[in-house]
Amino acid sequence: MNTAMIGGGADEPVLLGPEELASDPDRWARFTESAHRVLADLVRGGAALGWVEPPSPDEVADLLGRALRAARAGDGALRAAYVGGRPVGLGYWLRHTRPTHRPHADLQKIAVDSAAQGLGVGRALTAALIADARRAGIEVLTLDARGDNVHALRLYRSLGFSEYGRLPAFVAVGERRYDKVFRMVDLRPAGPRHPG
User: 88 and 59 in contact (C-beta within 8 Å)?
Assistant: First the structure.
């Protein structure tokens, strides 16, 4: 079983991987429903998750289905976080599909229910996804975030992600503009690198 227990208290996150999530159709349906609620609520509150309007249930089900298929094929990872038996967060990464970029993956989404923020759920999800990437042979894990998402950017930095680029005022939300910040963590073993 890939379940990772972080701590042991009622407020400590328990992480499930794709096989635990999908082995029971009822659990998968509840997870998909909860993921939609979490994502829609966060987007309604202005969270920087890639949507301007809350996603539909079908859009979230499709997104999670793609992440699950990729994880089963070794081309991604999917994690769900539960606190007190309730699903409160999710995250996933996908391997780049171009042959020249196959050793690399992009952390697509980390989302934590606002009621569970501050419990270490985002940190646990991100750390587990980094470990999954390392086990899958991913060399470089990248992500992008909206520049005003200071808590997420601080978390990513604390877990080893360094900034490698920034597009000023690139993200448009109505009349507001935000930087798009690119971060990466190099998972390759230390040693000589070939010159670029």
Answer: no
